[in-house]
């Protein structure tokens, strides 16, 4: 099913770029009101929200805006180096992102949410691991991660 052209990407199923951009703007509004995460993001760049939106969109099968104009997988990893993120930070980040996805009514079908949360769990755990190291150890040319529907194989069909 994964290779079937009729199966929409996660990006398409979510509703395209406006949805990812709105999601990240609303998410980082929450982050900046959160006592645990605010100190980490207080000085984030003004392009942070839109870059993270482009990164997520690309991972989920959307246009290659992040990797062609804004960064690369290694550039994204570099932003986390030496920040010593903890499991507590990560858990809160995930909780707030999923809560924002609910509030903005991203597709709530089991298949989409399973894939969405799988990537978020994977990506945030990678971020915590990389943040313990002050230096980039990965291949600087490593391609962007690509996320598909996984085991469910496609969106929910009643
Ligand atoms: C799927 C997981 C994640 C992805 C895809 C991701 C993606 C990104 C991207 C693309 C940037 C660069 C933004 C820019 O160019 O301005 C960035 C920066 C950053 N991320 Fe993440 N991130 C993830 C998880 C986390 C987590 C869990 C934390 C902490 C709890 C975190 C903390 C930061 C910080 C502090 C920066 C630098 C912000 C700044 O000072 O501009 N990230 N992230």
From TrEMBL:
Residues 137-158 are annotated as: Disordered. This is Hemoglobin. It comes from the Bacteria. Heme binds at residue 51. Keywords: Heme, Iron, Metal-binding, Transport. The keyword Transport applies. Signal peptide: none annotated. One of its GO terms (molecular function) is metal ion binding.
